[in-house]
Amino acid sequence: MFGYTGSGPYCYTNSLAMLLGPAAPSTTVLETLTGSAFGAELIAGELPFFSPYGWDPELGLDAAVDLLGWRCERTAGGTAEQAVERLRRACAEGGPVLAGPVDMGLLLYQPGTPNADGGDHYVVVLEVGEDGTVLLHDPHGHPYATMPLDAFTAAWAGDSVAYTAEPYVLRSGFVREREVGTEEALRASLPGAVRWLAGRQELRMPPGSLGGEAALEALARQVEAGLAPGVRDLLQHFGVRVAARRLADAASCLALLGLAEAAAEAAGQARALGGLQYPVVTGDDAALAAGLRRLAPGYARLRRALEAALADGAAA
């Protein structure tokens, strides 16, 4: 196993790292604490994500903040005017704040915007200016970006984001309540990882949604029948590469805990996922479907390895 260092679409993880400052662990650790690596899902039988059934960044952020011994205030909803006042007050009183999900396609300082397929995103807002602008750090490569406040508010409404029913989500007032070391936080996250891998069926999902091996088998059949262009674009530009990195990071964290079998399983999943990038881009659908089927049983193996580690106390 050889860990990965480089760029990737870790928007909420990088944003959280900025908010936690010098006390933040590495993004490798932060992403693993969110639980994002531990599963796969096919939403409404159509939209694939290599994240656990029912998981979303909002759940992941809250989990990571809590596991690290921090708390923050999460607010949402209201009118655009009320949200702007909330944002202005939070920046003035407590410094930078975490805003999101926002509609990435409406962040007009990014080339190619506006567009309808930007996806969900998170940013750190530094300041709401008296001149009607917002100053922010966008972890997608745009430090100190500025844009008109009304345009930012339109993006912040998150109208295109399916996993939140509330607009104008804001996290502020980050306070460290207890000292938690990296290994302690990671060990505490393992039961949650097992629950994600087992499939949390209590979470409400659209009809026809699938998780784990069933999701990947259904996706393989979609590939053989002909992927919709939007689904192929999602896999090409986001899905495969972020998932491979998440699993590689999880493998590094599990190795840090001395969980060799679980680390090897996560690393194997990362390698299998990374190997899907070439066929999904080149249109080699036979190889893509076969790769998905090789990948599918690996999540169950990872769950069994983690369960065994918890059972014999190796993760305690």
Could you tell me the radius of gyration in angstroms?
20 Å
Q: Which bin fits the share of residues in helices?
A: 40-55%
Q: In what range is the share of β-strand residues?
A: 15-25%
Query: SSE order, as H and E?
Result: HHEEHEHEEEEHEHEHHHHHH
What does the average pLDDT come to?
A: 96
Specify the biggest β-sheet. 6 strands, antiparallel
Distance N to C terminus = 23 Å
Which consecutive residue ranges, at least 5 long each, have pLDDT under 50?
A: none
- Beta-strand segment tally: 9
Describe this entry's structure for a reader.
Helices cover 50% and strands 16% of the residues. With 316 residues, it is an alpha+beta fold. It has a 6-stranded antiparallel beta sheet, with helices on both faces. A 3-stranded antiparallel beta sheet has the order 2-1-9. The two termini are 23 Å apart.
What's the short version?
By secondary structure, this protein is α+β, with helices and mostly antiparallel strands.
Main traits of this protein?
globular, alpha+beta, 316 residues, 16% strand, 9 strands, 6-stranded antiparallel beta sheet, 3-stranded antiparallel beta sheet
Topology:
Blueprint: H1 11-20, H2 27-34, E1 41-43, E2 47-49, H3 57-67, E3 70-75, H4 80-94, E4 97-103, E5 120-128, E6 133-138, E7 142-148, H5 149-156, E8 170-176, H6 182-198, E9 210-211, H7 212-225, H8 229-256, H9 260-274, H10 277-282, H11 285-295, H12 298-311
Antiparallel strand pairs: 1-2, 1-9, 3-8, 4-5, 4-8, 5-6, 6-7
Helix pairs in contact: 2-3, 2-8, 6-12, 7-11, 8-9, 9-12
